[in-house]
Amino acid sequence: MLPSFYQEKWIEAGTDEAGRGCYAGPVFAAAVILPNNFKHPLLNDSKQVGEKQRIILREIIEAQSIAWSVASVEAEEIDRINILKASFKAMHLAIDQLKTSPGYLLIDGNRFPAYKKIPHLCIVKGDGKYASIAAASILAKTYRDAYMEKIHAQFPQYGWNRNKGYGTLEHRMAIEANGLCIHHRRSFNIVPQQITMQF
To answer: Using an 8 Å Cβ cutoff, are 133 and 13 in contact?
Structure first.
């Protein structure tokens, strides 16, 4: 089982994002503060956990966390500020919304612009190393997946209920056939040559 904390001097929040590499939809981020005694055998990096297990874990995390929050940045803003800055912004927004203020941040990844004056530690593949980051990865992933299924109803031709906006063959072929819609990230250079835009 993953250790709950990196340090115990300050209240520690784990943060992670989901959807950074997608062709469509927002990037989501979550921040989670777990209690000292939190343990769960299923908890791991969301990419290592099946969809049904992620839903179960989401309910457990939301019920047992000291605090949790989820935030997102839309495709239009991703195009305006770039995906890296948008990912950081979503993380900052998620930390902003925590009902308990953390004194230390664990960040999944290799860099992070400081949030206020709270010390932080970046951990590559941290969602597979610390429970709070893994919990944040579960929330970010499940909330993003649910959002993509919701907007799939508006644009069923892209198969977002299956590919969740990632650049699968199905999604790329749908873009070639239908062009882009309002949820696509135009800055990702995903438009095949001589395609007309769909608004």
So the answer is: no
Rounded Cα distance between 187 and 199, Å, is 16
**Domain that residue 95 falls in:** 12-152
Give the C-alpha separation, 140 to 68, whole Å: 11
The answer as to whether 124 is a domain residue is: yes
Q: Which residues contact 123 (CB under 8 A, 6 or more apart)?
A: 6, 106, 107, 108, 109, 129, 130, 133
Which pTM does this prediction carry? 0.94
For 60-76, how does the pLDDT look when each residue is reduced to its tens digit (9 = 90+)? 999 999 999 999 999 99
- Residue 97: which of 138, 65, 69 has the closest Cα? 69
The Cα 141–Cα 149 span in angstroms is: 12
